[in-house]
């Protein structure tokens, strides 16, 4: 049937700040759903407290409410707008829980609001572990043996009845919070207590553990006619026992028999139909016994899930966009296939390629954390790669991770200790994939690796083949590698860096030049969802090594925007927000906007956001060949964080124009020693400092500048490796550790300004004028990373003289660095003295916060300035903030209860929220102010 015309206004509930287990994939889903509803002429309101996302931007919705995700906020919106329906399926578990709470309070009934996209009763059925288990039994779907427990005694009785090993699954929690495996009776009491306390209903499921079974996910859509389609089947590389968010995943499924696949499809459709009459998206997880292909259901999520973004990018099928239209009454056969533009959305995508997702971990930020993976998700982000084969996609994904790997091994970072490797295989952490390869290189038999990891043999054979290829390669020199064998290496995903390392005494550029001589060139294939059965209209590409290139370069003026890669602490969704606005601004200026990124969770990798999307690693070899094909006017590196910035020097060497601030001036700001020399020249105060390349030099510098000192490496993001030390012994340890992890880096030793306040400014410079976007005062003192500090906009306690100095120094530095575009400056304030700590001529994590607070599209303005299309004087900038905006960092320490939660120079927060106050008498602000006074007065 056609859409429900009675729905003229929809409220979408967002997921709030980024936390481990609920990240920017919901920003992508919510943004896509909002734009989909706006296409239908529906007024869209969004509630979300996350200022870093594109979802909370005026380009996405008609009305954006940056409010806490509470029923009070919901009612405030319902009183202001005549909302017809609420869509809670795009904001993860947070949105669903809030929808249920509002329903229980009678809010939807009171304001005559219809819940669409899901049945509230369906949520109850799927989240309540006992109801879900009983429903599966009733419809004939297999489940693991289990019992519900609402008390400690009930849990003990369930464990005795089922036997070990066990899984404890709390009800109504996200990303496995509070859950875990129990292998021994002695560990059960503590695990049961954790689970009961984690569940908001004090309820857990005590379940048989199916360790070693295979795990699969299916993404489904259903319409009001009860038509159901399977969008994507995703197979976990890792077996049951590792949270799917922490597992390497592959699509389509690689090791399923057709019979098992058809059984799984039928069961998934039956499950979706059994939980309610809603139309929309759904995610189902299964476990399969590798011995006999017995299938059991793990869970069903009647909403857009973490995997929906991955499935959308993997198939080119915009799940959230179609789900939103189904929620307002459309049927699948009434909607257009977004890729072909000629067929209907009532089809199941067919993949003629393979995608691999690898999670990104940040254990280095959580010193002492238990790195072993289990039921509680610990990854902070993920990458996705597309290849013609599994192994090509796997190597490309490894190159995308931003961990310094050039592929799956063959890069000088292999482990050689057999005992450590085997321990890693049995106790998986984020590096287990690499250690599987290390084990094969040491000659460990495939069957021994399979027993240790329980990973399907098919995957292991693929990795083992790489070892054989590398042994063959070592027989040659660069000038006599047969062309066919060279082509095979590239088709297996080997980077030029890996080949150079394997050959020895050869550079990456020499390998690149040699394969070009042999005519071995990267070509680009279109992601078309239908294996070329129908012509595709969407310019969405991935690279491989074949003969035919499907990406035809136009003769338009082009700009390439380099993305930020996987989310991690210190470089999160705020940089994707910046990239999206950069794309929109470039298009507005008449350029063909081209995006290069590998993060499936983001809006920048939506196939209709850029004029052309390359879903590729932000890795030099890939970027270089895209540039050679497209021949852009220039490349924007200012918006993609450190990932994009680190490409600047090589772009400069290649003669590619960097849009905005030059590499030379960006490098000057990044090089802490040279930057301090510039401050001295400009007569801008800065802490006493020195630069060291060894522990001996560091000790000498520290004694000259005086303890305490801040120790930090050059060219890092998110405070990586920073520490405050108070004596020679601690300094020596810190420097030796830094040089071990970052060899060849220059170490900056700053005198640390104890009990100083910290503040920062963001500005735009066009080469002539400087516009201060905003100045913020931090609550926490200097010494705590700015990303971990609450910040107030505008400053509330800094004297006018101090603010004038901050503005003066910002203008001086913008002009001295010849900034074209954005500049962020960190200040330390002691009394009336203002010191500059650092300057970053790029998009910062605070620009989206300021843009939302003042309601000004600052990234859009900055991009047009970078492109040279506009000067600052061309814009009329009106700030709309009345009162103050507060940026609140959000942490995910609950995932790592064993780590030290004390904050310091190295960033630990995973996200942020925004809060508005009218005046400084606000109770929330008074609490923060007292906290600041306590910090500054501490002895």
Automatic annotation (TrEMBL):
EC number: 6.3.5.5
GO biological process: glutamine metabolic process; L-arginine biosynthetic process; pyrimidine nucleotide biosynthetic process
SMART domains per UniProt: CPSase_L_D3, GARS_A
InterPro entries: ATP-grasp (IPR011761), ATP_grasp_subdomain_1 (IPR013815), CarbamoylP_synth_lsu_oligo_sf (IPR036897), CPAse_ATP-bd (IPR005479), CPSase_dom (IPR005483), CPSase_lsu (IPR006275), CPSase_lsu_oligo (IPR005480), CPSase_preATP-grasp (IPR058047)
Entry GO CC: cytoplasm
Complex and partners: Composed of two chains; the small (or glutamine) chain promotes the hydrolysis of glutamine to ammonia, which is used by the large (or ammonia) chain to synthesize carbamoyl phosphate. Tetramer of heterodimers (alpha,beta)4.
Name assigned to this protein: Carbamoyl-phosphate synthase large subunit
Organism of this sequence: Sphingobacterium paramultivorum
